[in-house]
Design goal:
197 residues; alpha+beta; Umud Fragment, subunit A; eleven-stranded mixed sheet
């Protein structure tokens, strides 16, 4: 994944300012790195994203691959902001850590594990208590199967905007959500028709 361009001097200035001034989750600042200045591995990208989002910065990067097609296409610039896991809802596009690095996929289900270690599906944030841990099930919009469940500790942030060919796109606008749901419904019908009897 590539970050949006920004000079080294700006990064140094941001770092000095950040040391003197704490940044909360509601910060509107944007932090980015230049791929020309740093040879970033997937591990480095994950570490940098984790640190910047933890400090309250928004992060922009160029999305590789088409796992979220048509919502996010290869090369789109994605903006991610920090999020509290308790406020995540089904349908959100979340950046999270997994075995091979980081991914930004859509929340399909939210599971809670109570003190008795039982699982049940949540309807929304209002159903959550302090005595439970959450797990999230994600899926790329272009994928057929869900990803493995992800714990709260693996969540990095929420995708809040997409830029494609100079146009800013709201990933949660009605047109995108309807397009996604129609595509998902079509995939379900196709699977049912192709399933052996």
């Amino acid at each position: 994944m590539l970050f949006e361009n920004q000079t080294n001097s700006t990064l140094r200035n941001n770092k000095k300012r950040d040391q003197n001034k704490p940044i909360g989750l509601n910060s509107t600042q944007s932090s980015a790195l230049s791929p020309q200045s740093f040879n970033l591995s997937p591990y480095d990208f994950e570490q940098i994203c984790t640190e910047l989002l933890r400090k309250g910065h928004r992060v922009k990067f160029r999305a590789p691959g088409d796992s979220m097609y048509p919502t996010v296409c290869d090369g789109d610039v994605v903006t991610v902001m920090p999020i509290e896991t308790a406020s995540i809802t089904i349908g959100d596009i979340i950046l999270y850590r997994h075995i091979s690095g980081v991914a930004a996929h859509r929340v399909m289900r939210i599971l809670k594990r109570s003190k008795k270690d039982s699982r049940s599906a949540l309807q929304g944030p209002q159903d959550r208590s302090l005595s439970e841990t959450l797990e999230f099930v994600f899926r790329g919009d272009a994928a057929i199967n869900d990803d493995a469940p992800v714990s709260s500790e693996q969540i990095l942030g929420k995708v809040i905007s997409i830029e494609r060919n100079g146009r800013r796109i709201d990933p949660y606008c009605l047109r995108i959500v309807l397009h996604y749901k129609i595509r998902r419904f079509g995939c379900r019908i196709k699977r049912l028709l192709l399933r052996p009897n």
